[in-house]
């Protein structure tokens, strides 16, 4: 067995005279893969321990059960290594277009840049060092994730940058740009969107949101309940979050039409300062109805807060949506 093992795998050598430990490389399609095998004193493979480099582990991903099975069933180490090389060769042939492992300089430069950025900002890196996820926290304490997909010619080519944002992520990149500089640019984009997220966070926490059920940081739309079977869909501009949003009334025509007319007649009275007020719900109402009032700062001091159905001192359900919409969309009624 020993002669055959050395002949077929000259880079895999025993570490002791008992020949219960082997360490070195196996060669498949002119590529070398590091591994180590520890045998029991009787040299049986059933209780052997198998270790390998991250490159070999990457190529064997999905074949773990086969490797374990061969380790249990092979008659000797020579047979197991042959089986292992056969599995590895099939996997390598199945993806001939896969890029080769990058030069050592690629990895050393990447590690240096991560150290400069801070390991605490690295959430994930794949086994090929091609995809990274970096975390960032804006000035309001919100957590964000920046995903980078490095190109084969990195850093000559700019990486693909992905993030949960309501605007396109435009990054300035040169061959000298580092991960820290890239992260700093991302932070600047986050800060430019702070007011937008402040507005939406306030709306989400103080109103009854119908859609989306689980809004992401990229969502700019909210559909709010404003009465029985009546809602309003608003689209907030990320760059100008306090300006008049796009508004779409949803509901029966006989209810929506007068509201739309009111909106069109008074849209010039819109002011950008918007405040959302919480209204104490009636105890008998379900918890899902506790967020149901939204009142903009009024131009006319006589304008009063509007309360939705299900709240204390609530107007009749038929009038609640009208009063609410007037308050939200016109800010105030002109003095008569």
From TrEMBL:
GO annotation, cellular component aspect: Fanconi anaemia nuclear complex
GO biological process annotation, one example: protein monoubiquitination
One Gene Ontology molecular-function label: ubiquitin protein ligase activity
Signal sequence residues: none
Stretches assigned to the Fanconi anemia complex subunit FancL WD-repeat containing domain: 4-89
Matching Pfam families: FANCL_d1, FANCL_d2, FANCL_d3
InterPro entries noted in UniProt: Fancl, FANCL_d2, FANCL_d3, FANCL_d3_sf, FancL_WD-rpt_cont_dom, UBQ-conjugating_enzyme/RWD
All copies of domain FANCL UBC-like, residue ranges: 104-193, 195-276
PANTHER family found in the cross-reference section: E3 UBIQUITIN-PROTEIN LIGASE FANCL, UBIQUITIN LIGASE PROTEIN PHF9 FANCONI ANEMIA GROUP L PROTEIN
Protein name, as recorded: E3 ubiquitin-protein ligase FANCL isoform X2
């Amino acid at each position: 067995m020993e002669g055959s093992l050395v002949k077929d795998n000259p880079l895999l050598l025993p570490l002791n005279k008992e020949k219960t430990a082997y360490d070195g490389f196996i060669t498949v399609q002119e590529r070398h893969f590091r591994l180590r095998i520890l045998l029991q004193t009787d040299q049986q493979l059933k209780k052997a321990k198998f270790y390998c480099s991250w490159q070999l582990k990457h190529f064997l991903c999905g074949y773990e059960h086969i490797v374990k099975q061969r380790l249990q069933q092979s008659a000797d180490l020579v047979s197991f290594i042959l089986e292992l090389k056969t599995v590895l060769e099939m996997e390598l042939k199945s993806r001939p277009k896969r890029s080769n492992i990058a030069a050592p300089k690629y990895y050393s430069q990447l590690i240096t840049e991560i150290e400069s950025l801070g390991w605490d900002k690295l959430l994930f890196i794949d086994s090929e060092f091609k995809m990274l996820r970096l975390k960032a926290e804006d000035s309001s304490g919100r957590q964000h994730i920046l995903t980078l997909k490095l190109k084969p010619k990195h850093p000559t080519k700019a990486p693909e940058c992905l993030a949960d944002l309501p605007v396109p992520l435009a990054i300035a990149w040169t061959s000298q740009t580092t991960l820290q500089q890239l992260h700093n640019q991302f932070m600047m984009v986050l800060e430019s969107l702070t007011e937008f997220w402040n507005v939406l966070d306030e709306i989400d926490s103080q109103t009854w949101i119908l859609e989306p059920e689980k809004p992401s940081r990229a969502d700019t739309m909210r559909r709010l309940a404003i009465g029985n079977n009546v809602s309003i869909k608003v689209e907030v501009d990320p760059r100008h979050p306090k300006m008049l949003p796009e508004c779409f009334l949803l509901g029966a025509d006989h209810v929506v039409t007068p509201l739309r007319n009111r909106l069109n007649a008074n849209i010039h009275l819109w002011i950008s300062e918007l405040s959302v007020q919480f209204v104490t719900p009636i105890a008998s109402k379900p918890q899902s109805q506790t967020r149901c009032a939204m009142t903009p700062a009024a131009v006319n001091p006589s304008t009063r807060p509007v309360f939705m159905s299900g709240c204390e001192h609530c107007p009749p359900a038929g009038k609640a949506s009208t009063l609410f919409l007037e308050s939200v969309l016109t800010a105030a009624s002109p003095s008569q």
